[in-house]
Amino acid sequence: VGTMDVMLLLLSAVLLGAAFLLALGLVAIQVIHGLPAHVPGEPAKLSVAALRRGLSYRRLWLLFVAAFGQVRASFVSAGTRTKNLQINRCFSRQRQVLLIQYASLWLRWRRFYNSSEPLVNLQKDIEYGRGKWLDLYEPVIPNAEPNEKKPVKSAIIFVYGGAWGSGSKDMYSLVARTLVLRGHVVAIPDYSTFPSGKVPDMVLEIRTAINWLEVRYPESRLHLIGHSAGAHLALLAVLTMADVHGTSEIFQPLQLVPRDKRAVSSLPRTEPEIAAYKRIGSVTGLAGVYDIASHYQYEAQRGVEFVSPMTRAMGGPARFADLSPTNILQTHRAHTGSPWAPPFSLLFVHGQADKTVPLRSSVEVSREIARHKVNFLKLPDANHVDPLFALMCDQWVFHAEVLDAIDRQLSS
């Protein structure tokens, strides 16, 4: 065993220890919330029943096993059954060690976002709705005349993920760079992640960003790309726009109520939404969540449902069906007798080894859409972030496959 192998083993042990301590902390929080009501004037008591309710060995063990599996998968090559640790770098065709991958991309992202690149014009913090901002990436013509603009092939909105509770537009600048260098304009909006907002708020904001981009580039086709929770929001935004557009699709009503009066000004108007919806050329979902109830059950099996902000971001289990694209499309089929056939194409990209969002999430929603409108790319041995990172790094595994599939969508 080499020195690097020993270092990786030590690193994995540290990561596992951190996961274990995190699990203990979560259990402690659950114990506290499980305490019986305190009677004023009497000392607080910790009952055995409350302790048992809070200290779930099953959840603790599942968290530990999940962490161990993620670390092990990052060090062991997916195609080998030996005990040899495989170290691969970002600029090779093999899978990298997880930490090295993230560190490399982090450095590239910070360098690109905080500096200028000759072929990319980055405009930061453009207000697209009241109190909502996006970053806009445009291609630049080398040696161009003043005010000369490069023809835009497509205008793309990238919706990032983060379990509806985290994320920032600047973190995905390398995705924009890849697409801009191919002649496209890319907008990456921030939106009100939980607890600042709930899913209906997020959907409204994505729809507002779509309208903003349509006005900015009236001659370009609009395309949406989303990853994980972002794929859910992108598809849900388009489905609700179809309902607003007044098409013959019959969807379950979705009450999009703003959180406060300030959000009213950012509500999309009907006419701009009609124009924007007609100009959507494609929607691409990377490892997306489309059936919230099914995903909640999956999270419960892994023992992380109380950690994930998903349920609270949806507004509780009662909203799962209304906010699930799969359920909406199943309702449409039940009323019309046929699958949804939108005026644009959809692409679903999903890793077959995705342990965060299982492959069946994309498979099941794709079955509710007309076959001639759906394209599907299954990536063997790919995890949850591989489809995303394939757009960030030109030497990442599956880079060519993912980019070729998206190119076909953008040119359709």
Please tell me about this protein's structure.
This protein has 412 residues and is an alpha/beta fold. 44% of the residues lie in helices and 14% in strands. The protein has 14 helices and eight strands. It has helices at residues 3-33, 48-54, 57-75, 98-113, 173-180, 199-216, 229-245, 270-278, 292-302, 310-314, 325-336, 360-366, 386-392, 399-411; strands spanning 120-129, 132-139, 154-159, 185-189, 221-227, 280-286, 345-351, 374-379. It has an eight-stranded mixed sheet, with helices on both faces. Helix 12 links the parallel strand 7 (345-351) and strand 8. Helix 1 runs antiparallel to helix 3 (57-75) and helix 6 (199-216) crosses helix 8. The longest helix is centred in the N-terminal third of the chain and has 31 residues, at 3-33. It starts with a helix and ends with a helix. The model is unreliable at 34-99 and 244-269 (pLDDT under 50).
Short descriptors:
alpha/beta, 14 helices, 412 residues, single chain, eight-stranded mixed beta sheet
In short:
This protein is of the alpha/beta class. 44% of the residues lie in helices and 14% in strands. Strands 1-2-4-3-5-6-7-8 form an 8-stranded mixed beta sheet, with helices on both faces.
